[in-house]
Amino acid sequence: KAGVTQTPRYLIKTRGQQVTLSCSPISGHRSVSWYQQTPGQGLQFLFEYFSETQRNKGNFPGRFSGRQFSNSRSEMNVSTLELGDSALYLCASRTGGNTGELFFGEGSRLTVL
Amino acid sequence: GQQLNQSPQSMFIQEGEDVSMNCTSSSIFNTWLWYKQDPGEGPVLLIALYKAGELTSNGRLTAQFGITRKDSFLNISASIPSDVGIYFCAGQLGAAGNKLTFGGGTRVLVKP
């Protein structure tokens, strides 16, 4: 069974630009979560989508948004990029039921210059 | 909000040693998870715990869900060089849809 796939793996943007990251969950998983990982803040929860609806949201500004499609694939978007948005963005999927077991992708490393 | 304190922040291992790390929370969790992350990769799930007092093994790894529901520990027995990496604990309160809260990680390094 294929794992969680994230694209692109690496990208460089400049301040003020926007970026869209993509995530394909494990087949059969209906829940997709996004996390930001930085050396200083660790793993911070962004949001979770289930059946195309945002089910949970972390404490990030409105510049961070996401969506989920009917095939469970998800995208997250960051607008008006700031230097502090440089991070590894991790997508994780789970079945969507009671289990808390998240399965992570390899991440998209964003560098903002 | 919920806080997870993970310790130690880093440790050096020598091949063959047993090592342990733990996480404590300011509030209870119903699920504890342990992940390992290698450089340039996403975290990989090692062990999941669902009941207070539960002790679960995965090869040389053993983890326990604390009786108070506010802590968990992970032991690695007979460590080998590939055990190097960052280990994260994560807790989830409640059932479906609740987010995971992650500890700050324990960086495991090899003794020079």
Description:
The complex is a heterodimer of chains A (113) and B (112). Chain A has 113 residues and is mostly beta strands. Helix content of chain A is 0%, strand content 53%. Chain A is built from no helices and eleven strands. In chain A, strands 2, 4, 5, 6, 9, 10 and 11 form a seven-stranded mixed sheet that branches. Chain A has a four-stranded antiparallel sheet with strand order 1-3-8-7, with no helix packed on it. In chain A, a hairpin with a 3-residue loop joins strand 4 (31-38) and strand 5. The termini of chain A are far apart. Chain B is mostly beta strands and 112 residues long. In chain B, a hairpin with a 2-residue loop joins strand 6 and strand 7. Chain B is globular, with a radius of gyration of 13 Å.
Helices and strands of chain B, in N-to-C order?
EEEEEEEEEEE
Distance N to C terminus of chain B: 39 Å
Mind telling me the C-alpha Rg of chain B? 13 Å
Largest sheet of chain B: 6 strands, mixed
Strand content of chain B: over 45%
CA-to-CA gap between the ends of chain A? Answer: 37 Å
Brief description of this entry?
The complex is a heterodimer of chains A (113) and B (112). Chain A is mainly β and 113 residues long.
Question: Could you name the key traits of this structure?
Answer:
heterodimer, A: 113 residues, mainly beta, seven-stranded mixed sheet, four-stranded antiparallel sheet, globular, B: 112 residues, six-stranded mixed sheet, five-stranded antiparallel sheet, 0% helix
